[in-house]
């Protein structure tokens, strides 16, 4: 189904280790509004989406989110490789290090492990697309917060790229929502719509 190209969607070249930054950026790997949840959300929702074009959109964006997982992994890896014991202690990385050394583990910035409970696949096109738009805004907000806390240009550059992609995804899901609503029997999206009833 997919062709895998052995390069990152956006280059990551971080020279200076910074475990403090890695501790907050890991949330975009496995946190409540991170790329893992986004990918699983979209790749799951596509099966019951009523519009074939939106199925394609969910597949495209879900796949791109997998590419974003790779970018986040590269950032966290490059921020934590070759840390000294002193840096681990000074930068408050001990709790993560004790459990995972410098392995990439899906968790939030607060250390909570990834859970599928952070996303929904409801089978209702309007509910799912509304969730998708909200998810993209929450991810954008998280990238905004990361940008407020990091100061290394090598880290800021790929984070800004990822933030921009969240905005594009939000816009694409908004367009998809309009298409789905336009295809309803009744233009009032809150009205009962018999076309969604399983027979």
Question: What features would you highlight for this structure?
Answer:
mainly alpha; 199 residues
What does this protein structure show overall?
With 199 residues, this protein is mainly alpha-helical. The protein has helices at 19-25, 27-30, 35-45, 52-80, 85-90, 94-100, 125-149, 153-182. Helix 1 runs antiparallel to helix 4 (52-80), helix 3 (35-45) runs antiparallel to helix 4 (52-80) and helix 3 (35-45) runs antiparallel to helix 7 (125-149). The mean pLDDT is 92.
Give a short summary of the structure.
This protein is mainly α and 199 residues long. It has helices spanning 19-25, 27-30, 35-45, 52-80, 85-90, 94-100, 125-149, 153-182.
Return Rg in Å.
19 Å
Number of DSSP helices?
8
Helix content: 55-70%
Instruction: Give the H and E element order.
Output: HHHHHHHH
- Counting DSSP E segments of at least 2 residues, the number of strands comes to 0
Mean pLDDT: 92
The profile of the biggest β sheet is: none
Structural classification: mainly alpha
Q: What is this structure's SSE topology?
A:
Layout: H1 19-25, H2 27-30, H3 35-45, H4 52-80, H5 85-90, H6 94-100, H7 125-149, H8 153-182
Helix pairs in contact: 1-4, 3-4, 3-7, 4-8, 7-8
């Amino acid at each position: 189904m997919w062709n895998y190209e052995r390069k990152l969607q956006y280059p990551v070249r971080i020279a200076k280790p910074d475990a403090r930054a890695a501790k907050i950026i890991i949330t975009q790997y496995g946190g409540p509004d991170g790329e893992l949840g986004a990918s699983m959300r979209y790749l799951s929702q596509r099966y019951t989406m009523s519009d074939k074009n939106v199925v394609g959109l969910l597949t495209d964006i879900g796949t791109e989110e997998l590419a974003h997982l790779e970018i986040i992994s590269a950032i966290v890896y490059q921020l934590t490789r070759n840390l000294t014991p002193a840096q681990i202690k000074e930068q408050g990385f001990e709790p993560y290090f004790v459990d995972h050394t410098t392995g990439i583990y899906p968790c939030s910035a607060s250390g909570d492990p990834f859970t599928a409970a952070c996303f929904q696949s409801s089978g209702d096109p309007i509910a799912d697309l509304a969730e998708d738009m909200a998810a993209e805004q929450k991810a954008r907000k998280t990238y905004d917060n990361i940008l407020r806390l990091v100061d290394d240009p090598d880290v800021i550059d790929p984070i800004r790229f990822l933030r921009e992609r969240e905005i594009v995804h939000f816009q694409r899901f908004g367009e998809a929502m309009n298409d789905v609503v336009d295809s309803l029997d009744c233009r009032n999206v809150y009205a009962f719509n018999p076309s969604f009833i399983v027979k």
